[in-house]
Amino acid sequence: MEIFSPNLEHGRFQLGQKMTLADNDICALSATTIAAQISDRSLSGEEVTRAFLQRIETFNPTLNAVCTLNEEALSQAQAADQKLAQGGSARLLEGVPFLAKDILHTKGIRTTFGSLIREHFIPGEDTLSVERLKAAGAILLGKTNTPEFAHDIHTTNKIFGATRNPFDVNVTAGGSSGGSGAAVAARLAPIAIGTDLGGSIRIPCSYNGIAGVRPSPGRVPVYPNEFGWDTLVAHVHGPMTWSAADLGLVLQALAGPDDRDPSSLPAAACDYSHIAVEPPSLKNLRIAYVGNLDGLFPLDREVEALTKQAAYRFESLGCIVEETAFDTSGLRDIIAGTRGFGMVGRYADLYDAHKEQMTDQLINQVSTALTLDVRTVVAAEKLRTVYWQRVRRFLESYDYIIAPAVGAPPFRLDQPLPSEVGGLPVKRYYDVFLACYAFSVTGLPIAAVPCGLTRSGLPIGIQIVARRLRDDRAVAAAAAYAQIAPEVFSAPEVDSSKLQAISGDLSTPGMAVKSDTP
User: Fold this and answer.
1) Could you list the active site residues?
2) Is the dihedral of CA 330, 466, 342, 264 positive or negative?
3) Dist. CA 282–CA 320, nearest whole Å
4) Which of 7-16, 128-137, 426-435 has the lowest mean pLDDT?
5) What is the pLDDT of residues 46-65, one digit of tens each?
6) 322 phi and psi, to 5 degrees?
7) What is the dihedral of CA 477, 483, 488, 489, to 10 degrees?
8) Which of 119, 187, 234, 425 is 20–30 Å from 66 (CA)?
9) Burial group, residue 479, by CB count within 10 angstroms (0-12, 13-18, 19+)
């Protein structure tokens, strides 16, 4: 079985081959290194862009991570080189290639949202995060695959099909930024922009062994946006990179206020790019490792061992690490009400007009949300306020919370959705993703980093949760961890000889979390 990306030609990567990355390959360079070498003219933007486009041509037919290319990428890189040759100053991300999730508007480039409803939509302007990376000198290579309107934890849709994981092409790359996660892991670009509501950056980071940031809502302004004041749980934009140091570089370009987003935050008095390269001392800072939050979600034993080990590695930085937890009661009601509000607000009209074109995953979530009444939503927001106060008080004793990003390794594509986690039966497999949502509802800044591989070679990741509005501390902790655990940031070997067909029994219902209240 061969997998083809619908709008890209099949490249030189043949079935039966393993593709690795040479140390001297341009595609093995971090965004920070690429920007520095283009600045000092030891590399050109054209060389870099050609290298990554060739790598996309080689790998993408198997991975299906990139769904649409920017046909002007090479000419844009050449134009940037010409400006430098004429004496222009290098910008922060000069010549660095990046990819954007396919729910993000890209001027003149098809943006489908993974939906037949938007299959031929070509925006007239860039989303703000894309605009800012371009303004910083980055070169947009194209768009990454996403489930329909970014609302599932497995990346597949009716236009482009499923994205595969470069560590094992028979397991999911996660979602909803699964295309971005797989692309960065396979070094199809050093940077991708993802979005995160209930874990859509952190889940693919964990599943693909890369780093990411779910910033504080408003830290990276969002425009265009139907809801200028995202009054419930915000859908934020953030960087996904394979180098933790690059998180700060990209966040430096993305962060800062913009009047087009009335919820955007004032500029922070810090330089994220400097913090990520030279993180401040974490000595004597207190870290809470919370495991499965006293049974909130199923936790595979191997995942628990790797994530706990990662937390205790911070002791070598002088941190004080303790195992503890906080009260998560009411969380399901909070998610059901706040997520349901967003599903109705964003998709109810589309559901009424285009239900027959939607995926089952989105239909399930919207139809469940439509059963809610206003009082249920209000009650959920009141509960969220109570929940926040509990987390706030908990953080009075700790500087960071570390938790698994997901309760289980990535699931297989050639088998039905698992009914067990770690050998124990589970009623709802999707509960493993409550690990992320437990922190989404707080709006706290979170870094995601890898913490190793399972015995079967699948990546596992942790979340590093910082205090309110301290995005700088989230980046600092991720960068400091990368310096003491460089071995967990590893490139996969894509092996096409093991490619299995996607199971017709695979059922991903979409994260329609139901309330605990009868």
Assistant:
1) 101, 176, 200
2) positive
3) 10
4) 7-16
5) 999 999 999 999 999 999 99
6) -130, 150
7) 90
8) 234
9) buried
